[in-house]
Structures are given as structure tokens and as C-alpha cells.
Amino acid sequence: MTSPLSAPTSDGRWTPRLWGTLLVLCAAMFLDALDVSMVGVALPSIGSDLGLSTSTLQWIVSGYILGYGGLLLLGGRAADLLGRRQVFLVALGVFALASLLGGLVDSGPLLIASRFIKGLSAAFTAPAGLSIITTTFAEGPLRNRALAIYTTCAATGFSMGLVLSGLLTEASWRLTMLLPAPIALIALVAGLKLLPRSPREKNHNGYDIPGAVLGTASMLLLVFTVVQAPEVGWASARTLLSFLAVAVLLSAFVLVERRSPGPLVRLGVLRSGNQIRAQLGAVAFFGSYVGFQFLTTLYMQSLLGWSALHTALAFLPAGALVALSSTKVGSIVDRFGTQKLIAAGFALMVAGYALFLRIDLDPVYAATILPSMLLIGAACALVFPSLNIQATNGVDDHEQGMVSGLLNTSVQVGGAIFLAVVTAVVTAGAPDRPTPQAVLDSYRPGFVVVACVAVAGLLITLTGLRGRRPAQPSVVVAKSTVRETEKDRVPVRD
Predict the structure, then answer these.
(1) How far apart are CA 25 and CA 189, in angstroms?
(2) Which of 41, 251, 369, 475 is the most buried (most CB within 10 A)?
(3) What is the pTM of this model?
(4) 285 and 219 belong to one structural domain
């Protein structure tokens, strides 16, 4: 059951209150993506100003990823149990304060701490914001349009962050840390006025404290292990023992969730084929793109000698294509369904990555790089909104935060894992004599891995197209209080 706010006017137009609600949520998602992309270009200046080593600089990025990826499951369920509006606004306020702290500190450890706190707060705003949309906008064309705009803001924030970081770092790296603070405060004030009040979940079976502890610990340790593996070695005793500990924690988490009367993650939701494909698709989609962006940035700056701003502008066509398509994707989803769009998007992504393998040491941008950027931009415009729609369709309102947390966890964990894998592949092939051509040749296996991850995403999606029946009305996943045979019913429509 969705909020009365989701009702448009008699002529089908959205009310100003409805637009305002969506814009507040889009602002938070925009900030999350902006913050991730802005910090990378500023790292050399931060290291020089604060006297930080390369290994310490890594934690300015990894600290954010650790807080974000490790606490998303808890953030999603907290939104369901404690109230989506309350969780979103409190976390947004913490995000603003952490941004202010990060721009003012003169210590590496304090800067890393501020980044971890920002990641932690984003782990609560992201699932809370997505679940506010899915419970405010009625399932169908209304929600599809809202989610298309929402996910476009994430892609736009990521693209703009690359450009803004190049400009702001020229003046001071502190501006890249401070910029999100005023935007977050404006969104917070607007949210207090516009966001619908969401009641806490009633009649729930208590708080799953053991599940929360095990789920958070397993995700934190998984992200930490993957981030550190390229540095300490994938086959090192530390990495292997950490992965073993993750497996033990996840096994214990599953056992607790199966027996808990009020689980942090109701495992029956994952019996839906559409849900599993959405989660695995998110892993493949973001994992491949993060690896591609990492390698492409190294290629452009280290081998071609492009400036940070020049590199950011090279990525801009992809982001611009996503932004321009925001108002159209929802209607395309209504017509073709999520599975077909995700499959088409992955096919475009594979083509874009394959074309990029033609790069050399003297590329013609319009002929060599631009076609890949346009194909990847089109893929992002189709895949990301469709994954969000598919993951949240047919799920009861009281579990929207949980599913949103799952999806965002898949995105972040996928990015962390495959970035580490790509880094390891490139490092293993590093030449003894680093001539430009030898370095470029060492990058190619990494680009092949990126393309293979996208192919895996395409194959996973195609399994949902085989023998599909005509669309039928969604069957809402029933509340967890009913019998096991009933609570695991799943949607039969995208």
C-alpha cells in the first residue's frame, strides 16, 4: 500500500509536493554518487598537503566503501523498522556534518574517519530513500518514471563529480570535501517539509540483533578483505583466513535468519528468480563499470598524459546520455519490461567494452573512445533504472527497505570485488621494463576481465527471458507472519 502522496492530479500530472519529495531523495542519491567520484582526482593533492603515504591515501577511498558496503543491510532494515523518513533525515544530517569535518581536518586519520562516517550515513540514506520512493509512488508507470529519474541522478552525480573534482582541486582539495555539506543541508531542510511521514513497522517480531551483528560484521569483513587483497596478496594467509571468516559469519547469518521470527533479511524473498537476477545483475553491472573506469582513468592520465579535467570530459558523453534519457526510460520499461531492457543494456555494455580494446598510444577520441562511451552510457540508462524497478516490484511495503538494502549491497560489493580483481590482474601482468606499450599491454587483460563480467551479467539476464509467459498482475510477496508456503510467493511479472 503506497502513500496518498502518490496520487497525481486529475489530468495525470504530478503535484508540486510529489515533485518536491522526489527531488529531495534525488539530491541525496546525487550526493552519494558525487562524493564517490570527486575524491579520486583530489588524492595527490591531499597526500602532498597532509604528508600521507600511498597506502594511507587508499583508505580515504576505502574507508567510504567500507562504511557504505558494510552497513547497507542494517540500513535497509532500520528504515523499515524505525521509519523511513526518520532514518533518512538523521543520516542525511550526519552526512552533512561529516562532509564539513572532512574539509576542515588537518590529520590523515581524522579525514579517513570522516570518510567512514560519510559511508556509514550513505548506507542508511540510500536504502531509506529508495524505499520512500517505492512506498510513495504506486507500482507501475508512476513508480517506473520516478525510479528512472532517481537512478539518473546517481549517474549524473557520478559524472559531474569527475568534472567538478578537476575544477575544484585546482583551487583546493578541501573544496571537494566541503561541497556536499551545503547541498545536504538544503536537502535536509526541504526534506523536513516535504517527505511523507512513515510509520514504524507495527506488529514486527522484535529486533533481530544477532542477525544485525552477523550481517554487518560479515559485510564489513568481506569489503575490508577484498579492498586489502591486492596489497597483501590474494594467496596470503591473511586474505585466505579473512575469506574463511567471512564464510563462517555468512553461514551463521543464514542460520540465524532462517530461525529468527523477525529476520534482518527474509530469505524467502531470494526465492524469486527476478529478485536473484536483479541482485546478480547489480553485482555484474557496477563491478564491470568500476573496473572499466579505473583502468580507463589510468590509461588516459598515465599513458596519454591527459589532465584530470580532460579525462573527466572524456567520460562526460556517457553521463550526459544518461541524464538526457531520464524522462524516457520509465515509459520504455512500461512497454518492454525490465528483463528485456536489462538484457539490451548488458549487450550494449559488452559491445562498448569490446570496442575499447582497440585503444592504442595515439587514439583518435571520436573514432576510438567516444563510441564506447556512448554505448556504455546507453547501457547505464537502460540497466540501472530497470534493476531498481525489478528488485522492488511485487515486494510488500514493509519489506521495501530490506530489498533496497540488498540491492545497494550488491552494487557496492560488486564494485569492491571486481575492482580488486581487475587491479590484481593488471598488477600481475606489470612489465619489468615499463615502456608505454608494455604498460598498455598489461592493461588489456584487465579490460578483458571487465568485458567478461558484463557478459556474465548478460547471460544471467537471458535466463529470465527463456520461456517467459505473457505478463500477469504482480503477486505481492506476502508478510512474513503467514505460513511458509504463503510467505515465499514471488512476483510473476517484471
Answers:
(1) 12
(2) 41
(3) 0.78
(4) no
